[in-house]
Design goal:
This protein is mostly helical. It has helices at residues 18-31, 37-49, 54-57, 61-65, 72-80, 88-93, 99-102, 109-121, 126-144, 153-157, 171-184, 196-215, 245-256, 261-273, 277-281, 315-327, 356-369, 377-390, 395-402, 407-414, 419-436, 486-489, 500-519, 523-545; strands spanning 288-291, 295-300, 309-313, 334-335, 342-343, 348-349, 352-353, 463-467, 470-474.
């Protein structure tokens, strides 16, 4: 972008009579292979109310955002052809996902081509180039009304007149308030807080932009870094939701007993091969390959990660495929929705492809018949992978079977049952028992020699809790017991004055343990004991009042 300079006012949009706009819109729809009666009615209604489309831009933002889906193609046409500048507030709120398809054939196409060529020269990936072109450059071209070579910093400053240059950005005055705004932002449609992935995407986009202009040596680059790794929200890392063995067997029996044989067999095939549901419906009729000396293999076509793979199948799974072939509806090949090529799909019913929704409905029905909570098709994939991990499959084999392109994706299943973690836990627990002795009376040393804790239990370098009939000490590897002092915090817990001495002794111990944990730097442990002190104060106060 050029340095900030005095700019001539942007050329005003030349008013065009509404009938001419409607005719041009109709021609444009036909040229792009779109259009229906709803689009025509939407355009007629819009142009009847706003013969000069720029008058619509003067309406409040809520009115502009209320435009319905059958009117939005007209708005896109007006913006791309220079008949409408809707305002940056509108452009920032609208996602405008269709612009990527409509820009090349519009008057803005040459400018966008120049932008894409420059982004390619700078080394941006194709997805990033297209995203920046449709979501950033196109918005500037639409609202400014200028060709791309005439854009300057002043065109951006119109959004925030108090900020003349990116070089004036300040962490405290600009970035931190913006980070708070992102954290508090809500979805514009249903009012729920933004997801962690959406907040992460917004912050990473701004941070990378500032890093790039600093690396390029732009004069507008801030003098110091403003967005740091700590500002980026961490994404939750839930473990795969697999079906426990009992539930897996119950669901399998329900699917085998289902009257909807084609759909049920397709789901059993997904469980036996670990396919994603999108890969399952894309399977082709000739997808099974017999390899001499290596058995049968199922070819999984291009899927989520644009990779093909071969999955080995056993005789039972091969019989399942044969059953599906016998139960499918024969017919002519169908066009693949992604490639447009004619394909004989494995899963067809009454001349049409079996849909993902039909498979999900059948899976929900089978889960209900088995007495289980609703099950998703992806849980079958998680169950397949978890069973392989428990059987000791190697990471490389698991990656190949699941079609993962990175080891990190497959390692998520390894975290479910990590033998190393279990071994470390048992080793630490054995060592703790040898050094500290048994926690429960009558427990013995692993070699049969009784060992006792000869120091004051309150001074032991362990996680400690005072109980009604004794005390609990745990190693750090074990973590805090989830049942520690659960009764005291239960709303059904009651006490009276006869227990006040016991409660007072427990309170004194809890306070001492809080101080001990704080001195050791165990913040969460100290807070746990402090919460117990507060709860005991409440319980003792109620007992005295009664």
């Amino acid at each position: 972008m050029l340095p900030a300079r005095a700019l001539d006012p942007a050329p005003a949009a030349v008013p065009v009579p509404a009938p001419d706009l409607a005719a041009a819109y109709t021609v444009w729809l036909a040229a792009t292979g779109r259009g229906n009666k709803a689009y025509a009615l939407g355009a007629r209604s819009f142009l009847a109310r706003w013969p000069d489309p720029q008058g619509w831009a003067a309406e409040p933002l809520a009115v502009r955002l209320a435009a319905r889906s059958h009117t939005r193609p007209l708005l896109n046409f007006l913006m791309l052809h220079g008949h409408l500048r809707p305002g940056y507030d509108y452009l920032l709120e609208r996602k405008l996902s269709a612009l990527g398809r409509e820009l090349p054939a519009s008057p803005l196409g040459p400018d966008i081509d120049r932008f894409l060529a420059a982004a390619t020269e700078l080394g941006y990936a194709k997805r990033a180039r297209l995203g920046m072109a449709s979501q950033v450059a196109a918005r500037l071209l639409i609202q400014s009304g200028r060709p791309i070579e005439a854009l300057a910093t002043a065109d951006l400053a119109a959004v925030d007149p108090g900020l003349a240059s990116l070089a004036d950005l300040d962490r405290q005055r600009h970035i931190e308030p913006w980070l708070r705004a992102v954290a508090e932002a809500r979805h514009r449609h249903h009012g729920t807080p933004l997801s962690a992935s959406e907040r992460r995407s917004r912050i990473l986009t701004v941070g990378r932009m500032l890093d790039d202009i600093a690396e390029w040596g732009w004069a507008q680059a801030p003098a110091r870094r403003l967005v740091f790794d700590r500002d980026v929200p961490r994404l939750p890392r839930p473990l795969p939701r697999y079906l426990p063995p009992d539930a897996d067997r119950q669901l399998t029996r329900a699917l085998e007993a289902s009257p909807n044989r084609l759909y049920a067999d397709a789901l059993l095939l997904a469980r036996a091969t670990g396919l994603r549901v999108g890969e399952l419906v894309d399977l082709e009729l000739d997808g099974v390959h017999e390899v001499a000396g290596q058995g049968a293999w199922l070819k999984v076509p291009l899927g989520k990660l644009d990779t093909e793979r071969m999955v080995p199948i056993d005789d039972e799974t091969l019989d399942l495929v044969d059953r599906i072939v016998a139960g499918r509806s024969p017919g002519r090949p169908l066009r693949h929705p992604r490639t447009g090529q004619l394909v004989e799909f494995l899963l067809t019913h009454q001349g049409r492809r079996v849909s993902v929704y039909a498979l999900r409905d059948e899976l929900h029905r089978a889960a209900a018949a088995a007495g289980l909570d609703p099950v998703t098709p992806h849980q079958l994939r998680h169950t397949y992978a978890t069973a392989l991990v428990n059987a000791g499959v190697s990471l490389q084999a698991l990656m190949a079977l699941l079609g993962h392109v990175s080891a990190e994706m497959s390692l998520r299943y390894g975290r479910l049952f990590d033998a190393t973690v279990r071994a470390d836990y048992e080793r630490a627990l054995t060592l703790a028992k040898e050094r500290l002795g048994p926690v429960l009376p009558g427990a013995s040393h692993s070699r049969g020699t009784p060992v006792e804790l000869h120091t004051n239990w309150r001074d032991a370098p362990l996680i400690k809790a005072r109980l009604a009939g004794g005390y609990c000490v745990r190693t750090a590897a074990q973590g805090v017991c989830p049942y520690t002092n659960i009764c005291e915090h239960c709303p059904n817990f009651r006490s009276d004055v006869t227990f006040l001495p016991i409660l007072a002794a427990q309170r004194a111990d809890a306070k001492a343990l809080a101080a001990d944990a704080k001195a050791r730097g165990w913040g969460e442990e100290a807070a746990r004991h402090q919460r117990l002190v507060q709860r005991l104060d409440l319980i003792m106060g109620h007992a005295q009042a009664r």
